[in-house]
Every structure is written in structure tokens, then in C-alpha cells.
Amino acid sequence: MVAKRVRVSITTLILLIGSFISLFPFYWAIIGGTNESGKIFAKPPVLLPGNQLFENIRNLNESIGIGRVMFNSLFVTIVYTILALVVSTMAGYVFAKFNFKGKTVIFGIFLLSMMIPYHAIVIPVFKMMAAWGWLGTYKALILPNIAYPFAIFLMRQNMMAVPNAMMEAGRIDGVSEWGLFTKIILPSSKPALAATAIYLFMYQWNNFLWPLISATSEDMYTMPVALSSLFGLSRIDYGQVMAGVTLATFPIILFFLMLQKYFIQGMLGSSVKE
């Protein structure tokens, strides 16, 4: 009994320390957004909210244009998430439930592509976008990574858990292949769809390198690129940087909270096979 209490106490202490380490940067960013730049790195550190929040947001808006940047980020991220989720779901369904020549080789190429450093493909993709005249457009921001290998892998692993007997029963009842996909596979894959959507949304929202290269004007900047431009000034106003970081965090948290009840189930679903 005593040993059990000790284990519970140690586990609770470790969880509390982990929670503090994880959450303190967010708290510090929020507090920094409400204080003057000079107080953010003061000694001892300021850990209470200040009264400069609206001033920092006004300065941030003058520097990067919050409305335009937020629209670019939301538009690019939402459209990318929808399109990439459609591609990942259909590709995952094919890899999970159909047998065809070269299937293993093609899927192996997908897995190997995850091991290629992203920086190694940036220049070829940039030259391709330039040749097509897509640089500085939403198409260049959205389409290059639409077939994301890990998302296809995640959907494929989850769909393998859907019993084949259920699909055979549907075929015997005269259900078409499209009907099997929309009426059996998709309803059975809601947790996987939610987990993949969260992953794709976070990936695109936080994507920095490709938008930095492909956005040829400030009008196409997304939030990470716009915030990085604040560090190119002679004087860095950390108050508006922290306010911008706080604003950039809210959409991800909101999207995660909307789908969180499916997230763990969707991630664990890939470990279950028929």
C-alpha cells in the first residue's frame, strides 16, 4: 500500500513538472504580450500581466497587418487541410483495401520519401513553381505538399483495421465501390480523419521555410513569415512579437479542442489490425 502511494506520488510529481515545462512558455508569451519590451527580459522576470496589450497589438498591426496575415494563414491552412485530407484518405483507402501490381513498391517509396530532408526538395519545387508562374500565389503555398506521406501512412494504417468482411457484405448487398468508401470506410474512420486533420493543420499553420521562399511579396506572407520579419528591424519590440506569438497560437488550440475527443483514438487506431 505504501509502495503504491509512493509510485502515485512520484508519477504525479513527474506529471506536474512536465506540465509546468510544457505550459510555462505559453504563459510567458502571453504575459510578455501584455508588457513593454524592456520588461520581458528583466531580472527578476515579470510574471504578472501588464497594461500594454492593446499598445503591442496596435504596433504589431502597423508592422505586419494582422488582418491580412491572419487571413493568408487561415485560408492557406484550411484549404490545404481539406485538400490534403481528401488525397490522404483516398490514397490510404487504396493502399489498405486494394491489391494491385507494384502496391508494396509504391507504398515503400512513400515511406522512403519521409526520410528525405525537406530542404533537399525545396530548390526543385521552387524551380517548378517558377516555371509554371505560380510563385507569389496561393497555389504555390498550398499545392506542393498536398500528398503528405505521413498523412497517407496514418490513414492507411487506420483503414486496415476496418474488417474486410464488412466490405464483402456490402458488395454482396450491391453497394458500389464509391458507396463502400462513403458509407462504410469514412464513418468508421472518423477518429483517424480527425487526427490526420489536426496533424495537417498544425503542419501547414507552422510551415515557415516554403512560405518564406514562395511568397514573393509581403501581401502573401503567412503568420510565421510575418513574425520573423519583425526580427529584421534595428530595434526588436519583443512586446509585439509576444503578442503576435500569442495570436498565432489561438487557432491551433481552438482547432485541437474541436477535435480532441477523436485525436488519441485516431492515433492509437493505427496500432490495431484486423
Describe this structure in words.
- With about 270 residues, this protein is mainly alpha-helical.
- Helices cover about 75% and strands about 0% of the residues.
The major beta sheet can be summarized as:
none
Please report the distance between the alpha carbons of the first and last residues: 40 Å
Total number of beta strands: 0
Please tally the helical runs, counting DSSP H or I stretches of 4 or more residues. Answer: 14
Estimate the strand proportion.
under 5%
Please provide the ordered H/E string of secondary-structure elements.
HHHHHHHHHHHHHH
Q: Which structural category do the helix and sheet elements fall into? A: mainly alpha
From the alpha carbons, calculate the radius of gyration and give it in angstroms. Answer: 23 Å
Low-confidence stretches: none
User: Averaging pLDDT over every residue, what do you get?
Assistant: 87
Shape: globular
Helix % is over 70%
Looking at how many chains there are and whether they match, the oligomeric state comes to: single chain
Task: Summarize the model shown.
The chain has about 270 residues and is mainly alpha-helical. The chain is about 75% helix and about 0% strand. The chain starts with a helix and ends in a 5-residue tail after the last helix.
Fill in the keyword field for this structure:
274 residues, 74% helix, globular
Helix and strand arrangement:
Layout: H1 2-32, H2 37-40, H3 53-64, H4 66-97, H5 103-113, H6 118-132, H7 138-142, H8 149-159, H9 164-172, H10 177-188, H11 190-206, H12 209-214, H13 223-229, H14 238-269
Helix pairs in contact: 1-14, 3-4, 3-14, 4-8, 4-11, 8-11, 11-14
